[in-house]
Amino acid sequence: MANLEKMIEEIKSLTIVEVAELVKKLEEEFGVSAAAPVAVAAAPAGAAAPAAEEKSEFTVELAEIGANKIAVIKVVREITGLGLGEAKALVEAAPKAIKENVPAAEAKDIEAKLKEAGATVKLK
Question: Where are the beta strands (DSSP E) in the chain?
């Protein structure tokens, strides 16, 4: 058996380029890869996916006005602080984002108010 310590000392004396060439030749000779297995790399990504689903900020979008346009305009004015003309224009432009990057609790509250007024709302 070869003296492993001697081989390690020789490898230490090589440049980075020479080590890369050595790795490539060993991979070709033995039909192996020095890269990390894909299963190991995929495990952390799979664990991160559920965390991405738990959003903390939402965009509240008015999808449809519904039958009671005036009530929806009043709620939009209350939520956004817009004047009557701006709120009316915003409601008539549906589907349109009412508020962006809103915390989850506030988004649910806005959604409930708009639905109570008769509008169809989407949280994104």
Answer: 57-64, 96-103, 120-123
**Phi-psi label, residue 37: left if phi above 0, alpha if psi -120 to 50, beta otherwise:** beta
Distance, in Å, from the CA atom of 67 to the CA atom of 69, rounded to the nearest integer, reads 6
Residues of the chain with pLDDT under 50: 38-43, 46-49, 51-52
The tokens describing 119, both together, are 């509008």
pTM, rounded to two decimals: 0.54
SS3 state of residue 96: strand
Q: What are phi and psi of 103, to 5 degrees?
A: -60, 155
Q: How many CB atoms lie within 10 A of CB 42?
A: 10
